[in-house]
Amino acid sequence: MTRILSIVALIIVLSVGSATAGGVVWRDHDTALAEAESADKPVMIHFTADWCGWCKKMKKEVYDLPDVAATLNTDFVPSMVDADKHPDLKARYGVQGLPTIWFVTSEGEGITYIPGYVDAPTFRKVLAWVSSGAYAEQSFEEFSATEG
């Protein structure tokens, strides 16, 4: 019995570890908003589509980076929305092109959005600006200037 419990515990530890070590843990839109409210974290919503080449480039060159994935999983509730399958959400957030990334508060209020592809160094700065709450006090440009 002890051996079975040990195996079950090991499986749980490995599955939890692989979820965070394996990249961004994406949620659907509604789940992300509910989780953000209970965790008091901002939501990052990535609007994408299967045909979007820039979205695939962003996944490969930005979201797949271990430090970016860790920051998203720790400081945000990340959500991925297929704009073709959810035209209601696309309209609600005013998405004109893909990719579009929205950051919203845990109450669902808009913080800022990024229309189009953004490189990893810039995206890291945006994550720091939003997660620190600096967006309430200073523009992204001011924050970037002070962060080096």
Tally of alpha and pi helices: 7
Measured distance between first and last alpha carbons: 56 Å
Query: What characteristic shape results from the CA principal axes?
Result: globular
Please summarize the sheet with the most strands. 4 strands, mixed
CATH superfamily (homologous) name? Glutaredoxin
Q: What is the CATH class?
A: Alpha Beta
How many beta-strand elements?
Answer: 4
Q: If you consult CATH, what is the topology?
A: Glutaredoxin
Low-confidence stretches: 1-20
Number of domains: 1
Estimate the helix proportion, in percent: 40-55%
Give me the Rg, rounded: 17 Å
Which band does the percent of strand residues land in?
A: 15-25%
Strand order of the largest sheet: 2-1-3-4
Instruction: Please give the CATH architecture.
Output: 3-Layer(aba) Sandwich
Mean pLDDT: 88
> Structural class of the secondary structure composition?
alpha+beta
Order of helices and strands: HHEHHEHEEHH
